[in-house]
Amino acid sequence: MADTSSPAGSTHVLADLWRVDPALLSDGERIETMMRAAAAAAGARVLSAHFHRFGGGGGVTGVLLLAESHLSVHTWPEVGLAAVDAFMCGRARAEAAIDALCAAMRAERRTTEVIRRGGQ
Predict the structure, then answer these.
(1) Catalytic residue numbers?
(2) Domain 10-114 carries which CATH code?
(3) Which alpha helices (H) appear in the chain, and where do they start and end?
(4) What is the dihedral sign for C-alpha 107, 113, 118, 120?
(5) CB-count burial class (<10 Å; 0-12, 13-18, 19+) for 109
(6) Whose CA is closest to 53, among 18, 27, 24, 17?
(7) What local confidence, expressed as pLDDT, does residue 10 receive?
(8) What is the pLDDT of residues 1-38, one digit of tens each?
(9) Sequence ranges of the domains in the chain
Protein backbone atom coordinates (compact mmCIF):
# COMPACT_ATOMS: atom_id res chain seq x y z
CA MET A 1 0.00 0.00 0.00
CA ALA A 2 1.18 3.50 -0.76
CA ASP A 3 2.22 5.85 2.02
CA THR A 4 -1.08 7.38 3.15
CA SER A 5 0.49 9.88 5.55
CA SER A 6 1.31 12.42 2.82
CA PRO A 7 -1.33 14.56 1.07
CA ALA A 8 0.73 14.62 -2.14
CA GLY A 9 -1.43 13.35 -4.95
CA SER A 10 -4.63 13.38 -2.87
CA THR A 11 -7.99 13.80 -4.55
CA HIS A 12 -11.02 15.36 -2.89
CA VAL A 13 -14.31 14.88 -4.71
CA LEU A 14 -17.52 16.65 -3.69
CA ALA A 15 -20.65 15.30 -5.34
CA ASP A 16 -24.36 16.00 -5.15
CA LEU A 17 -26.44 13.01 -6.26
CA TRP A 18 -29.94 14.14 -7.22
CA ARG A 19 -33.29 12.44 -7.74
CA VAL A 20 -32.46 9.49 -5.50
CA ASP A 21 -35.31 7.38 -4.06
CA PRO A 22 -36.34 8.99 -0.74
CA ALA A 23 -36.82 5.57 0.90
CA LEU A 24 -33.16 4.77 0.22
CA LEU A 25 -31.99 8.14 1.51
CA SER A 26 -33.49 7.43 4.93
CA ASP A 27 -32.17 3.85 5.18
CA GLY A 28 -28.91 4.01 7.14
CA GLU A 29 -28.09 0.30 6.78
CA ARG A 30 -28.44 0.32 3.00
CA ILE A 31 -26.43 3.52 2.71
CA GLU A 32 -23.63 2.10 4.88
CA THR A 33 -23.56 -1.05 2.72
CA MET A 34 -23.32 1.09 -0.44
CA MET A 35 -20.61 3.27 1.09
CA ARG A 36 -18.52 0.22 2.05
CA ALA A 37 -18.88 -1.15 -1.48
CA ALA A 38 -17.86 2.24 -2.89
CA ALA A 39 -14.76 2.30 -0.67
CA ALA A 40 -13.85 -1.18 -1.93
CA ALA A 41 -14.39 -0.07 -5.54
CA ALA A 42 -12.00 2.80 -4.89
CA GLY A 43 -9.34 0.49 -3.49
CA ALA A 44 -9.63 2.02 -0.01
CA ARG A 45 -9.44 0.28 3.37
CA VAL A 46 -12.18 1.02 5.93
CA LEU A 47 -10.89 1.58 9.47
CA SER A 48 -14.20 2.48 11.14
CA ALA A 49 -17.72 3.68 10.40
CA HIS A 50 -20.38 5.79 12.05
CA PHE A 51 -23.86 6.41 10.64
CA HIS A 52 -26.83 8.22 12.17
CA ARG A 53 -30.43 8.08 10.95
CA PHE A 54 -32.61 11.04 11.75
CA GLY A 55 -36.12 9.93 12.74
CA GLY A 56 -39.43 10.97 11.29
CA GLY A 57 -38.48 10.34 7.67
CA GLY A 58 -35.29 12.35 8.00
CA GLY A 59 -32.05 11.57 6.29
CA VAL A 60 -28.80 9.91 7.18
CA THR A 61 -25.38 11.29 7.95
CA GLY A 62 -22.43 8.97 7.95
CA VAL A 63 -18.71 8.63 7.58
CA LEU A 64 -16.24 5.89 6.76
CA LEU A 65 -12.82 6.58 8.21
CA LEU A 66 -10.35 5.18 5.67
CA ALA A 67 -6.67 4.41 5.87
CA GLU A 68 -6.55 6.73 2.84
CA SER A 69 -8.71 9.49 4.49
CA HIS A 70 -12.55 9.45 4.45
CA LEU A 71 -15.83 8.95 2.62
CA SER A 72 -18.89 10.77 3.99
CA VAL A 73 -22.56 11.25 3.10
CA HIS A 74 -25.44 13.47 4.15
CA THR A 75 -28.92 12.82 2.76
CA TRP A 76 -32.12 14.81 2.39
CA PRO A 77 -34.96 12.43 1.41
CA GLU A 78 -37.41 15.31 1.13
CA VAL A 79 -35.55 16.64 -1.92
CA GLY A 80 -33.94 13.40 -3.19
CA LEU A 81 -30.37 14.53 -2.48
CA ALA A 82 -27.26 12.72 -1.27
CA ALA A 83 -24.23 14.97 -0.73
CA VAL A 84 -21.05 12.87 -0.82
CA ASP A 85 -17.48 13.76 0.09
CA ALA A 86 -14.65 11.42 -0.97
CA PHE A 87 -11.11 12.41 0.06
CA MET A 88 -8.46 9.82 -0.74
CA CYS A 89 -4.72 9.61 -1.13
CA GLY A 90 -2.27 6.94 -2.20
CA ARG A 91 -3.61 4.56 -4.82
CA ALA A 92 -7.23 4.89 -3.73
CA ARG A 93 -9.47 6.45 -6.39
CA ALA A 94 -12.00 8.92 -4.98
CA GLU A 95 -13.69 9.29 -8.37
CA ALA A 96 -14.34 5.52 -8.46
CA ALA A 97 -16.09 5.74 -5.08
CA ILE A 98 -18.38 8.50 -6.39
CA ASP A 99 -19.13 6.55 -9.58
CA ALA A 100 -20.02 3.46 -7.51
CA LEU A 101 -22.34 5.44 -5.21
CA CYS A 102 -24.03 7.21 -8.10
CA ALA A 103 -24.76 3.86 -9.76
CA ALA A 104 -25.86 2.13 -6.54
CA MET A 105 -28.19 4.98 -5.58
CA ARG A 106 -29.50 5.24 -9.15
CA ALA A 107 -29.08 8.99 -9.10
CA GLU A 108 -30.69 10.60 -12.12
CA ARG A 109 -28.33 13.59 -12.01
CA ARG A 110 -25.09 14.49 -10.34
CA THR A 111 -22.80 17.45 -9.97
CA THR A 112 -19.17 16.90 -9.10
CA GLU A 113 -16.24 19.05 -8.10
CA VAL A 114 -12.75 17.51 -8.10
CA ILE A 115 -9.99 19.13 -6.08
CA ARG A 116 -6.39 17.96 -6.26
CA ARG A 117 -4.77 18.51 -2.86
CA GLY A 118 -1.24 18.57 -1.59
CA GLY A 119 0.39 18.94 -4.98
CA GLN A 120 3.59 20.94 -5.43
Answers:
(1) 69, 74, 89
(2) 3.60.90.10
(3) 22-25, 28-41, 94-105
(4) positive
(5) exposed
(6) 27
(7) 92
(8) 344 555 567 999 999 999 999 999 999 999 999 999 99
(9) 10-114
